[in-house]
Amino acid sequence: MRRECGGGHCGSADWQMERPASAAEEPKLRHVEKDVLIPKIMREKAKELCSDKVQDFTKCCQETGFLMVVKCQQENAALKECLTAYYKDPAFYEECKMEYLKQREEFRATGIPAKQKQQKRLTSM
After folding, report:
1. Which of 7, 38, 46, 104 makes a 20 to 30 Å CA pair with 88?
2. What are 37-71's pLDDT values in tens digits?
3. CB atoms within 10 A of CB 72
4. Contacts 24+ apart (CB under 8 A), 53-56
5. DSSP assignment, residue 35?
6. From CA 60, how far away is CA 76, in angstroms rounded?
7. DSSP state, 33?
8. pTM of the complete model beyond 0.70
9. Rounded-to-integer distance, Cα 105 and Cα 102, Å
10. Taking phi first (over 0 means left), then psi (-120 to 50 degrees means alpha), and beta for anything else, what does residue 2 get?
11. Percentage of the chain with pLDDT > 70?
């Protein structure tokens, strides 16, 4: 079913296929949002949630210098395991997706990126 447009000539934005109601409720995500922006949020949050493992690995690397590749394998493996558990969790992805959609909605309403809002809050204190 197509919605006809007036004047006999339809541009790409003038007509569209009718979608089921459920498809209209689900927000449309672009490739870059799904594959870059949401995973970026996931990485940032996972690093916070695995902060103890990040600190252990960082400390080990600082103490051993060039030998870190050999001497910090245990800390590196623990960090990878912690991060990977979050990356593979579908519920964690949905949580980060909802956070991204909220940020996107705020940006579209205000025109101010979330990072600028955080910086303004920090400088105003």
Report:
1. 104
2. 999 999 999 999 999 999 999 999 999 988 888 99
3. 20
4. 53/78, 53/79, 53/82, 53/83, 54/79
5. I
6. 9
7. I
8. no
9. 5
10. beta
11. 71
